[in-house]
Amino acid sequence: MKKLLTIAIAAAVAAPMAVSAETTLYGRVDTALISTDNDTAGGDTWDVSTNSSRIGLKGSEDLGNGLKAIFQYEFGANTSEGGGYGDALNNRLGYVGLSGGFGTVAIGRQWTPYYGSVDKTDIMNLNPSAGALDGDSVDANANGHYLGPTRTGNAVAYVSPDFNGFSGKLALIMADERGVNTSDGLDAFNLSLDYNNGPLSVGFSYLDFDSATGGADRWGLAGKYNFGNFALIGQYEDMDDTVSGANDGASSFGIAAQAYFGNNTLSFEYGERDFDNNSADLDNWGISAHHSFSKMTRVYVDYQQQETAASVDESTFGVGIRHDF
C-alpha cells in the first residue's frame, strides 16, 4: 500500500511537468532516381540519390509567465547508401533558446536570416547540395545563382515578434578562432527585415563579415506575391569583393513562378550569377512538377540546367518520392 501511494504521489507531481513539455520526432525520407549530364564528364550517368532526407527532434517547455524553452536538433540522413554512422548523418541544425513576448533568442547552429529572407527562388524538389552526404554528383543547380549561406554554426540569433506583418532577425557569428587572417571576436553579423501579410512576402538582408575572416559582405532583396492559383517570385543580390582584392565581387538575380492545380504544383525558375572576374559566371533554369497524395507524401519530376562561364552545359533530371513525418 505504501509503495502504491508513493507511485501515485510521484505520478501526480510529474503530470503537470509532462503536460508543459513537448518533444516531437520528425523527419523526411526523400530519395530520387537521377540522371546527370556534363559536357566535360563523359556523358550521362544514372544513380539513386539521397535528396533532402533528414531526421530531427524539436520541442518546447512551458516555463510560465509566457516564457518557453525551445530546442531543435536535426541531421541530414543518407537514404540511398550504406556505411557507418559518419556516412549516414550530418549535422544540419542544433540550437536551444528562449521564446516569449519579447521574441525568440537561440544559440547554436541555425538557419541564417539571409536565407530565410532572400532565397525565395529555392523552390525545386531536387536539392543538388544534398548529394554530398551520399557522395553522388549532381551537376546542374537551378538555384545556383544564390550567393548567400543557408545555415551557420556558432550563432546567437534573435527573432522579433510580428508587428502587423513586419519582423526582424539578427544573427551574430563568433567562432573564437585566433591566428593570422582569422578573427578572435565577432566574425559576422546578419540583419534581416521581413514583411509578410496575406499574399505578399518581402525580405531584405545584409550580411557583414569581419575583414580578418576573408568573407565578402553581401545584401539581398526578394519578394513573392501569390494571387489565386499562381505565384510570382523575384530576388536580387550583390556581393562585395573580399579583402584579398581579387576582383571577386558578384551580383545575381532570379525569377520564378508557380502554378497550383488542386494537388499538383508546377514550378519554374531562371537565374544568372555574374562575378566581376567572370570566372564563376553561370546561367541556370529549372522546371519542376509534383503531385501531393497527402500533406505528407508527394511524387515529383525535376529538370535543371546550367551553363558556366566556360560554356559548359550541365543538366540534372530526376524522379523522386518524398514522405514527411
Write up this protein:
This protein is mainly beta and 325 residues long. Helices cover 9% and strands 57% of the residues. It has three helices and 17 strands. The chain has helices at 2-20, 85-88, 113-118; strands spanning 21-38, 43-50, 54-64, 67-77, 89-100, 103-111, 151-159, 166-173, 188-197, 200-209, 218-227, 230-239, 250-261, 264-275, 282-292, 297-308, 313-324. The chain has a 16-stranded antiparallel barrel. The radius of gyration is 22 Å and the shape is globular. Residues 1-19 and 131-135 have low confidence and may be disordered.
Question: What descriptors fit this protein?
Answer:
single chain; 325 residues; mainly beta; 16-stranded antiparallel beta barrel; 9% helix; 57% strand
Provide a concise account of the structure shown:
With 325 residues, the protein is mainly beta. It has helices spanning 2-20, 85-88, 113-118, and strands spanning 21-38, 43-50, 54-64, 67-77, 89-100, 103-111, 151-159, 166-173, 188-197, 200-209, 218-227, 230-239, 250-261, 264-275, 282-292, 297-308, 313-324.
Order of strands across the main sheet: 1-3-4-5-6-7-8-9-10-11-12-13-14-15-16-17
Helix content: under 10%
Largest sheet: 16 strands, antiparallel, barrel
Number of strands: 17
Strand percent estimate: over 45%
Instruction: State the helix count.
Output: 3
Kindly report how far apart the N and C termini lie: 43 Å
- Give the topology string: H per helix, E per strand: HEEEEHEEHEEEEEEEEEEE
Runs with pLDDT <50, length 5+? 1-19, 131-135
**What is the 3D form?**
globular
Mean pLDDT: 86
- By secondary-structure content and strand pairing, the structural class works out as mainly beta
* Cα-atom radius of gyration: 22 Å
